[in-house]
């Protein structure tokens, strides 16, 4: 666990302007600072989850929920049908609602690849500002073999 410092000690080094994510890290972990009202922090400490006055709809410039998928199986090469692995199973991402201007992405991933993605909304530029675009995600059918994936959610399941 990274060492911690008193607020006043850290605040003296922080940038005076702009938006910044405040965090400490070491070789094994990252601690990100997030400010909440005391009532939200007390509820989370007492119940082991967010709730009470906390709102998932509260907007800030850092957005969640996100998730990471790490592929633990190799892609089977088409030229070697005897090889271990899988074919198909690409990650799919598309804007909601789907239409002519919707952005669609297909991401193939094999052994050791990690895909970090927004599970509900993605940040988009709208004129000179930013907004959230609803998205949905899924996986193409695995046409041959089998695949093992480690899912790491950075959000609370509801």
Commentary on this structure:
It is a single chain. This protein is mostly beta strands. The chain folds into 2 domains: 7-47, no CATH class; 66-154, no CATH class. It is built from 2 helices and 11 strands. It has helices spanning 7-11, 38-47, and strands at 23-25, 30-32, 66-71, 86-88, 91-95, 104-107, 114-118, 121-126, 129-139, 142-145, 149-154. The strands form 4 sheets. The chain has a 4-stranded antiparallel beta sheet, with no helix packed on it. It starts with 6 loop residues before the first helix and ends with a strand. The model has no long low-confidence stretch (mean pLDDT 78).
Mean pLDDT: 78
The rounded distance between the terminal residues' Cα atoms is 28 Å
**How many individual β-strands?**
11
Tally of individual domains: 2
Return residue spans where pLDDT drops below 50 for at least 5 consecutive residues. none
Helix- and strand-based class?
mainly beta
The percentage of residues in β strands lies in: 35-45%
What spatial order of strands do you see in the largest sheet? 6-5-9-8
Choose one word for the global shape: extended
Assign a percent range to the helix content. Answer: under 10%
- Over the alpha carbons, how many angstroms does the gyration radius reach? 20 Å
Compressed to H and E, one letter per element, the order equals HEEHEEEEEEEEE
Largest sheet: 4 strands, antiparallel
The total of helices stands at 2
């Amino acid at each position: 666990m990274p060492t911690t410092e008193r607020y006043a000690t850290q605040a003296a080094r922080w940038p005076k302007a702009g938006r910044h994510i405040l965090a400490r890290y070491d070789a094994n972990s990252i601690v990100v600072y997030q400010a909440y009202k005391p009532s939200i922090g007390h509820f989370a400490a007492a119940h082991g989850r967010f709730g009470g006055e906390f709102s998932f709809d509260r907007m800030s410039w850092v957005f969640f929920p996100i998730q990471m998928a790490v592929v633990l199986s190799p892609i089977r090469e088409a030229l070697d049908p005897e090889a271990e692995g899988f074919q198909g199973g690409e990650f799919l991402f598309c804007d909601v609602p789907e239409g002519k201007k919707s952005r669609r992405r297909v991401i193939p991933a094999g052994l050791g690849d990690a895909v970090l993605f927004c599970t509900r909304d993605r940040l988009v530029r709208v004129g000179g500002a930013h907004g959230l675009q609803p998205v949905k995600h899924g996986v193409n059918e695995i046409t041959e073999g089998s695949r093992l994936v480690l899912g790491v959610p950075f959000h609370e399941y509801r």
